[in-house]
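Lecture notes, continued. The same structure-token format from the folding unit now serves as the input rather than the output. Read the line below as a description of shape only.
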């Protein structure tokens, strides 16, 4: 909205917001008008940005494209201004920290200096909006992730399930950590946290960090999208082998479905299978204990 107001006020053909959101990476994060302009990113150190001018809190004006192309060829190629347009780059700072710049093309205003000064005054509000957006993104990220493991949480799973029926073949893995309460009681919650993190790491080895949800204190759900049934069962075999190798205490249930099925239905089947295996596990434990006591 602010870029649109600036563009209309100063008669620009386009305005772009560029941000250094990662070290030494410049990203085009917003543009006006929204006409399908392809977003760009580049390495800051290779673009010959006019940092000396920026550090003095001054704007960079490229009114002669021939000179601009000759003196800063990488930056010229990155910005790709329309032929004949002047380009104005206004630095954005938070205190002395450079956050990015505004790019204004062909401002139709008698005094470019006035345009530059107006943008500098507005730069504080633009940076504040950028930081507010980043804070909201961070809070959203926190709201979707389990703080102990980094896995997605039940809130994220609920949102995923609201998308409706599956659009591709998908497998669901339902895992439960055996005896976690007993381990917490006997070894302390620090050890229990270690088991939870260990279980998550084992799951990431076969799935990466994509679509792994911690849905309870000792339960994980994994959604494997785009896998045919045979490939999904191979993934289950790889998971079971990794559990044995790492000495994890995970019980695993699974279910596979074709496009059109509901994730919740697959989850229910996988959970039922997991609990059956868990009952078998505890029955074996009880039988072994009984044999030891009898012997």
């Amino acid at each position: 909205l602010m870029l649109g107001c600036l563009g209309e006020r100063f008669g620009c053909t386009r305005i772009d917001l560029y941000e250094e959101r990662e070290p030494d990476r410049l990203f085009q994060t917003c543009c006006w008008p929204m006409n399908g302009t392809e977003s760009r990113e580049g390495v800051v150190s290779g673009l010959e940005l006019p940092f000396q001018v920026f550090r003095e809190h001054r704007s960079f004006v490229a009114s002669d494209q021939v000179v601009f192309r000759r003196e800063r060829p990488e930056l010229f190629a990155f910005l790709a201004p329309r032929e004949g347009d002047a380009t104005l780059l206004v630095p954005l700072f938070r205190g002395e920290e450079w956050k990015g710049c505004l790019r204004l093309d062909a401002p139709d205003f008698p005094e470019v200096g006035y345009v530059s000064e107006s943008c500098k005054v507005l730069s504080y509000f633009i940076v504040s909006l950028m930081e507010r957006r980043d804070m909201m993104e961070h809070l959203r990220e926190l709201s979707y992730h389990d703080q102990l493991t980094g896995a997605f949480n039940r809130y994220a799973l609920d949102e995923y399930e609201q998308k409706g029926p599956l659009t591709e073949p998908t497998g669901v893995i339902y895992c439960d950590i055996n005896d976690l309460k007993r381990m917490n009681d006997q070894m302390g919650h620090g050890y229990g946290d270690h088991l939870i993190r260990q279980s998550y790491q084992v799951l990431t080895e076969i799935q990466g960090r994509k679509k792994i949800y911690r849905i309870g204190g000792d339960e994980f759900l994994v959604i494997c999208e785009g896998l045919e049934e045979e490939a999904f069962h191979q993934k289950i075999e790889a998971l079971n082998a990794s559990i044995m190798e790492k000495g994890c205490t995970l019980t695993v249930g699974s279910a596979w479905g074709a496009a059109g099925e509901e994730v919740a239905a697959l989850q229910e089947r996988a959970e039922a299978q997991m609990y059956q295996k868990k009952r078998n596990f505890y029955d074996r434990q009880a039988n072994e204990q009984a044999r030891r006591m009898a012997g």
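Point for the exam: The longest strand covers residues 14-22.
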